[in-house]
């Protein structure tokens, strides 16, 4: 097939779009792949639609190989199923809600667990119908607070979402692995390097959850990995608690004057100057117990304060806290919060005073006191004494304080020991490109999806959910494949196989180009032909580079010597070949025979 | 490719869905093609998605042949462009409107003229860029008051909508014909008989407009056609005015007592009894002038009364009136309306009294008086005298009455003369399957789409709009291709090429079926194989008929004699063939080689 630029809907732009923050956004708009319609909402122009279609086809192939069947759900759905699972509220402002002419509540679905569950409930009733994996490639909606970065985080976006249905845990494991394997094949075919990391499973109510991250310093997700093979999203990190220490024989807690020490650093300085360690070593921030007051805004509109005690050398990681306290929204406590609790002395908060424990047992104060997992029994701390200008020294966990529970919300740091014992971890950044998830029975229970097992007994179905953001993947590929002159697509997803440029006004050039184009078409290539008669070579080369089809043929002055040039967009090499051999040479050199 | 029922997402249902009003809805749900999610909103199951994909592919092929380029717009769009063209309001309750988290108004697009216009304005600026035809296949939304009839009129539906852009009227004509020709090819390939009828162009502001109707007695649209080739939707009908008659010499109008004649029939009876015609013939309803009071609810919230005078043997056709008075909504005047206008005497309304004209010149009464085109100068009428129990006889148009204009809103009847002089028309019914439309410059003017012409002068672009309802077409094909046992797909859109049934529990039967399936796959057929081991032949045959793949191969008892049966779903013929020849026989008999 041959498409001619003189008869194509394409306009490349010289200027970057003013709202573009990332390179994929800039280049996809400038090269004529997409066009903005509203914040985070884009139209797909012919070039973009072709790339999107190729990515979708690779995903479809691998879903079919994994035994999944394609269906298609509407974007516009009724409120009720999402009400049953609580997500109508949980999604908060992120959900597009509307009413129809009769006043019924509808939503634009951000994800489809509920209706897939109900569909299977509607149609299936026996273990014989299972296992089942079904998927769709479909446009989804999320009302992002800051839609930006082009397609990387849009308000309308295309996803492949698959769901598996089993009646045993072993079945779910097998369905999960089939999808996980398919994802590995998909990302390999797309040329996307990936790391599979453990991800937070809590918010969706499931058990096993892994993310496919593309490792890149500009990624928005942080993950950790150990040389021994551990890899996890920081949100999924579990802190390894150190062994407990004997309490017996430790000196009693003492309160000391520590005026003007509202920060950890000032406290450490004063402690070293006025109350040095008995062993002669210096106090460090790690010897202090920092008590951070967080406000949780619950879905029911209530606001709750919690205090987290953690080693003074670490900060609370708000993303980890969001996971720990989901679905509540988290923020630092405000002056107004403190005003309601005069017992909390800012800068000097602690779980103990000279009269004994003052936090813990929420019933007494209305505030939960939670501890970092490192604060094990027998550890000794310097911490606030709940009096302005005073701190407790030698406060021993398990003896001097009471906690309402654990809060594993401290930042993870390079060198921290992996929870599986595989050694210290390093921190890295990545972009999420896929997510596989064992939902377990949460949705099936909420919506009543049960089947009869071999013994005629009703059992609740166990599910998995597996997502790839198609439009996000496209943006990531663009983000990774470009240079200062434009895009450089991998062959598997390039909008056309070969780009042919005829330069100059000489009829011989256009005749040679037509001949090459005919040969390429006969060889099965999908060709985009710049046949514009009155455009300068400079503009034509610029467009060829901007558009980024990896194989380019230039018909120029060389045609008088019977040659055209093969231009490799990625290496920038130009190789002259006889006009009649251009197609055969490209055919022989094609890395991926599927694409031609 | 082979798909096995033991590993497929399919459940046929014995019962019709309770809300199904039409056969396509019943069968598509029962046979496992679609599943309802909300009124007028459906999920597509694997079988349905395959049929939909085949229809879309035929449309894509023909759009490409017609030189149109595919793009894809979002469903969720900002209010502003629709505000500029007035359609944000004009759509009334039919538009799904919503707000985002920042309070901006958004809509789910029912059609995309505005944003296609803006896209071209964004990117193109010269006559050299034109002509341009671009299209999308995309999910659209309309909040129908009575979503019913399954996919025939849904609230979410898939459309192919194309738009052409030209800078000359001749260019628009050519672009229009290219789309019109493509539609003829599409419907021919889909096996859908069609009639091309003139359609109302007014509401969209354009000039030429034609609908493709599939003629069927159960169609929801009425159209007329003459033996001489005229065909039009009744909404587009233009009444041929008869020649005027000389006024001079006609007797003056006289008012007669006609008590108890509030209806046309009672009036005709009294006229014949008490005031017979001078020529001895009988008065008929066609001699009376009926004056119908309509209320127009305008978009700005105001309510206007108009009176339409038309021959007493015809009624107002409200659909035609809706077109004539668009975008106002029409209803019959209510008692409250009459109460506000005591001058209107129900049953005796007319344009004249003994003191002269009483209607016409809206400024005098606040009510426009409009006449049917048949009421030409010199025609003489019996009509109300604006006094209870009195009528005027011999009221002559052009002499005794004043009108504010023409209202061509009377019903069209079989035998009416076609407006192009091609003879009397007959009435027929049809289902709309496509619409081609010359929008002209309305959208380009409203949104400022201009290009520089050959002389460097800015000219406004002229546009066309061309629509096919993909999901509606699918339903219509299902509506037309079925019998009491289920669906019977045309080969071009059947979800699979061949359905293979293995009946009984005999291993030899399954071996023979496997052998046929392998041969079919090797021959390039896409096969659905009912390999369920423990299902009775009756259930299997029932499912085969319900699902409706037109070519069925049955492996049954005959395999002991080395034969299977080829079952033609449409003719119900069963032909035994040797096991090894089944695939070749089907290949030879395939009507459409493209489908295999």
TrEMBL record, chains A, B:
According to its UniProt entry, the function of this protein is described as:
Catalyzes the attachment of proline to tRNA(Pro) in a two-step reaction: proline is first activated by ATP to form Pro-AMP and then transferred to the acceptor end of tRNA(Pro). As ProRS can inadvertently accommodate and process non-cognate amino acids such as alanine and cysteine, to avoid such errors it has two additional distinct editing activities against alanine. One activity is designated as 'pretransfer' editing and involves the tRNA(Pro)-independent hydrolysis of activated Ala-AMP.
Q: Which family does it belong to?
A: Belongs to the class-II aminoacyl-tRNA synthetase family. ProS type 1 subfamily.
Instruction: Keyword check for Coiled coil, yes or no.
Output: no
* Annotated keywords: Aminoacyl-tRNA synthetase, ATP-binding, Cytoplasm, Ligase, Nucleotide-binding, Protein biosynthesis
Instruction: Recall the GO molecular function terms of this protein's record.
Output: aminoacyl-tRNA deacylase activity; ATP binding; proline-tRNA ligase activity
CDD domains on file: ProRS_anticodon_short (cd00861), ProRS_core_prok (cd00779)
Name this polypeptide is given: Proline--tRNA ligase
Q: Where is the Aminoacyl-transfer RNA synthetases class-II family profile domain?
A: 48-490
Gene that encodes it: proS
HAMAP family, A to Z: Pro_tRNA_synth_type1 (MF_01569)
InterPro entries in UniProt:
aa-tRNA-synt_IIb, aa-tRNA-synth_II, aa-tRNA-synth_II/BPL/LPL, Anticodon-bd, Anticodon-bd_dom_sf, Pro-tRNA-ligase_IIa, Pro-tRNA-synth_IIa_bac-type, Pro-tRNA-Synthase_IIa_type1
Source organism phylogeny: Bacteria, Bacillati, Actinomycetota, Actinomycetes, Micrococcales
């Amino acid at each position: 097939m041959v498409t001619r630029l003189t008869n194509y809907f394409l306009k490349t732009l010289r200027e970057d779009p003013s709202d573009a923050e990332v390179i994929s956004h800039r280049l996809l708009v400038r090269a004529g792949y997409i066009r903005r319609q509203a914040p985070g909402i884009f139209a797909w122009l012919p070039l973009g639609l072709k790339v999107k279609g190729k990515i979708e086809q690779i995903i479809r192939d691998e879903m079919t190989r994994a035994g999944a069947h394609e269906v298609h759900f509407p974007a516009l759905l009724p409120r009720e199923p999402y009400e049953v699972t609580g997500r109508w509220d949980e999604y908060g402002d992120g959900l597009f809600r509307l009413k129809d002419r009769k006043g019924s509540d509808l939503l634009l679905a951000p994800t489809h667990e509920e209706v897939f569950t109900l569909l299977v409930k509607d149609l299936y009733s026996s273990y014989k119908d299972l296992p089942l994996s079904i998927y769709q490639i479909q446009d989804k909606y999320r009302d992002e607070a800051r839609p930006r970065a082009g397609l990387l985080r849009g308000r309308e976006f295309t996803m492949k979402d698959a769901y598996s249905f089993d009646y045993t845990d072993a079945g779910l494991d097998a369905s999960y692995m089939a999808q996980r394997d398919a994802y590995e094949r998909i990302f390999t075919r797309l040329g996307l390097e990936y790391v599979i990391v453990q991800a937070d499973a809590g918010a969706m109510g499931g058990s096993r959850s892994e993310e496919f991250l593309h490792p890149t310093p500009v990624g928005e997700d942080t993950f950790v990995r150990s040389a021994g093979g551990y890899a996890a999203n920081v949100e999924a990190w579990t802190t390894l608690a150190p062994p407990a220490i004997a309490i017996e024989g430790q000196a009693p807690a003492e309160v000391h004057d520590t005026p003007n020490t509202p920060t950890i650093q000032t406290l450490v300085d004063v402690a070293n100057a006025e109350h040095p360690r008995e062993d002669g070593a210096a106090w460090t921030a790690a010897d202090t117990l920092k008590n951070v007051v967080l406000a949780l805004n619950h879905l029911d509109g209530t606001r709750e304060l919690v205090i987290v005690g953690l080693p003074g050398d670490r900060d609370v990681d708000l993303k980890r806290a969001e996971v720990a306290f989901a679905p509540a929204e988290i923020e630092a406590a405000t002056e107004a919060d403190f005003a309601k609790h005069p017992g909390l002395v800012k800068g000097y908060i602690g779980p103990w005073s000279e009269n004994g424990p003052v936090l813990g047992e929420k019933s007494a104060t209305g505030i939960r006191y939670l501890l970092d997992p490192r604060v094990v029994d027998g550890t000794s701390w310097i911490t606030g004494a709940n009096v302005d200008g005073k701190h407790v020294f030698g406060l021993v966990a398990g003896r001097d304080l009471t906690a309402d529970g654990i809060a594993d919300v401290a930042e993870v740091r390079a060198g921290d020991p992996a929870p599986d014992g595989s050694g210290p971890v390093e921190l890295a950044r990545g972009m999420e490109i896929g997510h596989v998830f064992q939902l377990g029975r949460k949705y099936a229970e909420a919506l009543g999806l049960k089947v009869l097992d071999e013994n005629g007994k009703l059992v609740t179905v166990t599910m998995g959910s597996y997502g790839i953001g198609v439009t996000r993947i496209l943006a990531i590929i663009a983000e990774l494949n470009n240079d200062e002159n434009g895009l450089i697509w991998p062959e598997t997803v390039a909008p056309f196989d070969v780009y042919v440029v005829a330069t100059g006004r000489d009829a011989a050039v256009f005749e040679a180009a037509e001949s090459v184009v005919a040969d390429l078409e006969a060889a099965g290539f999908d060709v985009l032909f710049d046949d514009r008669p009155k455009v300068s070579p400079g503009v034509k080369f610029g467009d060829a580079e901007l558009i980024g089809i990896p194989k380019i043929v230039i018909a120029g002055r060389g045609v008088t010597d019977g040659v055209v040039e093969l231009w490799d967009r990625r290496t920038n090499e130009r190789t002259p070949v006889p006009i009649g051999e251009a197609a055969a040479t490209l055919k022989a050199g094609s890395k991926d025979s599927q694409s031609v």
